[in-house]
Amino acid sequence: MKSAARTVAVNKHVSHDYEILEKFEAGMALQGSEVKSIRDGRISLKESYAEVKNGEVFLVKCHVSPYEAANIFNHDPLRDRKLLLHHREIRRLAGKIQERGLTLVPTRVLISDRGKIKLELALVRGKREYEKREAIKKRDTDREIRAEIKKRWR
How far apart are CA 4 and CA 16, in angstroms? Predict the structure, then answer.
């Protein structure tokens, strides 16, 4: 029996601000104090994004709070963290990002059933303001329809 991964942090703004085209799962190269801090849930994905530099993918502006017990051996909270992906995935992502103006945004951080910390990345395109309003309007009408159907079946 396979146990599910535990979600540590979620970037809630992604689905509202962006149109998600594709999702990937990547490992993260972390220091020991970062691992302990992430396991405590002290990570924020709010303004972070991923970029390709020299054939490698890095997570930028992701805040991992310092781990109190690590004292002098602590990490920099906003340092760039290397993401672990296959070379062919990196080349494909780099091509898509350069050509079409797409962005890589982290959607959630999870701890796998084997204890590894993983990052779910999404290849996204930014939504325009009117698209955001349409999405909110559609969500509200769907909610009202579901409520009306539920009320009629009682």
Answer: 26
